[in-house]
Write a structure and sequence with these properties.
Order of helices and strands: HHHHHHH
Number of strands: 0
CATH class: Mainly Alpha
Strand content: under 5%
CATH architecture: Up-down Bundle
Number of domains: 1
CATH superfamily: CDP-alcohol phosphotransferase transmembrane (TM) domain
Shape: globular
Radius of gyration: 17 Å
Largest sheet: none
Amino acid sequence: LDGWAPAFQKTLVSPFVKRIYHYVHPNTITIFALVTGVIAAVFVAVDLRFLGVFILLLSGYLDIVDGCVARMRNTSSSLGTVLDILSDRFVEAFIVIALYLRQPEMALIALLMMASMLVCVSSFLLVGIFSDKHSQKTFYYSPGLMERAEAFIFFIAMILLPSMTIVLGVVFVLLVLWTTFFRVFEFYRQTTVLK
C-alpha cells in the first residue's frame, strides 16, 4: 500500500500537519498515538467493534502525523524514532492481546502472531542498522509486504469478523514471516553484490 501513501499524505495528512506543527511536539503526538491504540485495544477486548476500529484508525493516523510534524519542524531525532517504533509495537501487541481476550480460542494463533511480529521487527531493525542505504527517516526502512498499513487492515478485519479471526490470523502469520525472510534475503543479496 506504500504506493498510495503520497496521495493519502497530500490530501489527509499534510493540511492537518500544516495547521498544528507549530503548536505540538512530534513526541507528544507519538504518546497520543500510543494512548489511543491502548484505548482501542480495550474496546476490542470488550467487543465494541466499531468503536475499537475507529480509535485504532485514529492511532494509526496519529502515527503518520508525528513523523510529518517532526520533518516539517526539522526536529527528527533518535529519541523520536525510538518512541515511534516502541509505540507502534505496543499498539500492535495490545491489539493482538485484545483479540485473544475477546476470543480465548485463538490463543495459539495470537502467540504465533506475536512471534511472527517479533522476528519481523527484528529483521527490520537489523537490516536498518546494517544497511548502507538511506531514507528520509532517521535510519533506513527496508520495505516489506506486510507493513503497518497492511497489519491494520488485518487487525480491522479480525475485529469486525470474529468468525474469520483464526483464518485471518494464520494468513497474517504467513505473510509476516514471508516479509521477514524476503527482507533478509534482499539484504543478503545486496551485501553479497557489494563484496
